[in-house]
Design goal:
Oligomer: single chain
Number of strands: 24
Mean pLDDT: 87
Helix content: 40-55%
Distance between the termini: 63 Å
Number of helices: 20
Low-confidence stretches: 1-8, 433-440, 469-474, 493-497
Strand content: 15-25%
Length: 694
């Protein structure tokens, strides 16, 4: 069932009625059925049945949770079209819009409410929504996420505390939807059953609904794509890699000459250039540099900044090697040229000049290697061959090409566009929203627009994606899925495999690494283990199952409560914030003020001299803020990104991010790093307008 059929009320299929049955009887149910069989429609049937039984005076209230906004948009529009005709009110709030909406009226005034889960977590926490008893039905989309500290689990903790506590208020019915409950790290069916029981306990589900009586009908609709494994060969000689590796060795030894103990800054051993492991090594070294200390503060600042620059360059070189390994050298070289262009445009101190010089010395040679047609990447030839073959067999083919990193998405798009043999392809890209580097993430409207183009028109016939399209986004007519050096876990695999929805669809796994093929075969085995475990659990007596679930819930609550008591101790001592790159003093925690629980500004005139600002490339308004400028460390040659300058109500103030600073304990001189403000437990003084006007 593609989503387009859902708008008109149509006859549900037998297997959809079968999936909806336990839930219609009022049982808490996990519905586990393949991607593409119309689980949204099943939840719609359950919802309609649920709302109709509240005719006399009392009213049903349904909340539907979706994690990803493109998914949320899709489900919400299906429900709106269906239920508004029946006189029910459907509305939704997600992340960005939440601050401007009074949530309680919103819940009060609608019958079916769509939320991203964190909003409910926040509103339960601050008491705006007193209890989950305001709802009569909760539907969790992609419910396999209900684990650890995920917002789904936070909502269910609240539910279970009420279930196991004194309250007599009725709890809502719970429905979970998923293509795959997963098996965690289970090695055998017993462990898999334990894992699945734990998920049922987390969702308080007493039934797992799967299609059993109507399998033939289901298999007519959801085709499992054929799976093909292709082992592809990497380049035999790699001149590009030799040159870049030489540059990396030089950069590493420069870093060692500045700081001899460099090797001891990270536990990660035998790192190879051009791997994720090297990337991890760089990250741990960068973190260690930021808290490292010397008696001579100027010396400390010089060394920290130098190491920051060296490691940043090493990271870019490493990225380039990964691009060149899976795409063309040309794309990797363009990536580096971009980077060095940006370096030149920013601070450009002696070290940067030196590193840029070293790169430019090799540029001529790199250019000629990357232009040499005989040095082309053999993996791309295999990819090209598969694409030619498949589009020759079926010119109407729609493809999703999954790759590991965002940089590869761009590189492969350029390769397709520049390849005359692939002129029949019109590539689009789909990547997630990324924090690290503002210009490479994709905004939601852009994601939505690409998906629409892919779904409806012949604009794009191949979509190059990182993992975002794995979960839940409906791409109906895609009949070829190519996993290019890309594997996920078992949930990902079932989800991805479900993405190829058209008849006769195929799924290729292309990899130069035999282990990857092994891993994928393990995934197939885990999928079988999962299905066997579910079948076994379904034979249990329901009362016995409920008893087992209750035991798990009591045990988990006991663990939760004993951990909860250890509230973080607030450290009331004043501390210094230093720039993470050059260690310049920025401000003291006593001057930090918190706005609306989540944004941090600095008061006083001293701080104004510590930063410089540049107009923001993408100024925009969010809730009561207007983002106007970016702020950077004012120390000569540093210009480390510290955050933004905003207009808040009538005030023009800086908003800083803790990940740009090192925190130094004044008395002991100990330094620590935090990536999020919420992990930093200092005395947080709320922002006060009166204080500002003094």
């Amino acid at each position: 069932v593609s989503h387009t059929d859902l708008y008109s009320p149509f006859e549900p299929r037998s297997y959809q009625l079968e999936l909806a049955l336990p839930a219609k009887k009022g049982k808490n149910t996990i519905i586990c059925a393949p991607t593409g069989c119309g689980k949204t429609f099943v939840s719609l049937l359950i919802c309609e049945h649920h709302l109709e039984k509240f005719s006399q005076g009392q009213k049903g209230k349904v909340v539907f949770f979706a994690n990803q906004i493109p998914v949320y948009e899709q489900q919400k529009s299906v429900f709106s079209k269906y239920f508004e005709r029946l006189g029910y009110r459907v509305a939704g709030i997600y992340g960005a819009t939440a601050e401007n909406v009074p949530v309680e009226q919103f819940v009060e005034n609608n019958d079916i409410i769509f939320l991203t889960p964190q909003i409910l977590v926040n509103n339960l926490k601050n008491g705006t929504i007193p209890s989950l008893s305001v709802f009569t039905l909760m539907i969790f989309d992609e419910c396999h996420n209900t684990s650890k500290q995920h917002p789904y689990n936070m909502i269910m903790f609240n539910y279970l505390d009420q279930k196991l506590g004194e309250s007599l208020d009725p709890l809502p019915q719970v429905i979970g939807l998923t293509a795959s409950v997963g098996v965690g790290d289970a090695k055998n069916t017993d462990e898999a059953m334990d894992y699945i029981c734990k998920l049922c306990a987390s969702l308080d589900a007493s039934v797992i609904a799967t299609v059993k009586d109507n399998l033939e009908e289901l298999e007519q609709i959801v085709y499992k794509p054929q799976k093909f494994f292709r082992k592809v060969e990497s380049r035999t000689t790699d001149q590009f890699k030799c040159i870049i590796s030489q540059l990396m060795r030089e950069t590493e030894s420069l870093a060692k000459s500045i700081y001899g103990e460099l090797e001891n800054l990270s536990q990660i051993q035998n790192r190879e250039f051009g791997t994720q492991k090297y990337e991890q090594w760089i990250v741990t070294v960068q973190k260690a540099c930021m808290v490292f200390q010397m008696p001579d503060k100027d010396e400390e600042s010089r060394i920290c900044k130098a190491l920051f620059l060296y490691t940043s360059h090493l990271r870019k070189y490493n990225d380039a090697l990964i691009i060149s390994e899976h795409a063309r050298m040309k794309d990797a070289l363009d990536y580096l040229k971009d980077f060095f262009g940006n370096v030149r445009a920013a601070g450009f101190d002696e070290i940067e000049q030196d590193l840029t010089g070293r790169f430019e010395e090799k540029l001529q040679e790199l250019e000629s290697v990357s232009m040499d047609p005989s040095k082309e990447n053999p993996k791309l030839e295999d990819l090209c061959f598969i694409l030619q073959e498949e589009y020759h067999l079926n010119p109407e083919t729609r493809t999703i090409l999954f790759v590991k990193t965002r940089a590869l998405v761009d590189a492969l798009k350029k390769w397709i566009e520049g390849n005359s043999k692939l002129s029949f392809l019109k590539p689009g890209v789909l990547t997630g929203r990324c924090k690290t580097n503002q210009n490479i993430g994709m905004t939601l409207p852009a994601q939505k627009c690409i998906l629409d183009a892919f779904r409806t028109s012949g604009d794009n016939n191949i979509l190059i994606a990182t993992s975002v399209a794995d979960e839940g986004i409906d791409i109906a007519q895609c009949n070829l899925v190519i996993l290019y050096e890309y594997v996920g876990n078992v949930i990902k695999m079932i989800q991805t495999r479900g993405r190829g929805r058209a008849r006769g669809s195929k799924c290729f796994l292309l990899t130069s690494n035999a282990d990857v093929i092994e891993k994928e075969k393990i995934n197939i085995y885990k999928e079988k283990m999962m299905n066997d475990s579910i079948l076994c659990l379904q034979t249990w007596d329901e009362a016995v199952f409920k008893e087992k679930i209750l035991h798990i819930q009591i045990h988990e609550k006991f663990i939760r409560d004993s951990q909860r008591k250890e509230k973080p101790v607030l450290d009331k001592e004043n501390k210094k914030l230093l720039c993470r790159k050059c260690k310049a003093l920025a401000c003291y925690t006593a001057d930090v003020r918190v706005i609306e629980d989540s944004h941090y500004t600095v008061v006083g005139d001293a701080f104004k001299k510590c930063f410089v600002s540049k107009p923001h490339p993408k100024p925009k308004k969010f809730s009561s803020f207007e983002k106007r400028a970016k702020i950077f460390c004012a120390r000569e040659n540093c210009s480390h990104d510290w955050g933004i300058h905003v207009k808040y109500k009538t005030f023009e103030i800086p908003v800083i991010k803790i990940e740009s600073f090192v925190v130094e304990h004044i008395a002991t001189g100990v330094q620590s790093l935090y990536s999020k403000w919420k992990d930093f437990h200092f005395e947080k003084i709320p922002f006060d307008a009166a204080e500002m006007s003094k």
